[in-house]
Amino acid sequence: MLEGVARVVQANSVFRTLCRPLASTWVNLAGLRYDDLLREETPIIQEAISRLNREEIDLRNYRHRRAFQLSLSHQELPSPQWTKAEEDTQYLQPLIEEVSQEYAERDAFNSMIS
Question: Are the C-beta atoms of residues 28 and 21 closer than 8 Å to each other?
Answer without folding.
Answer: no
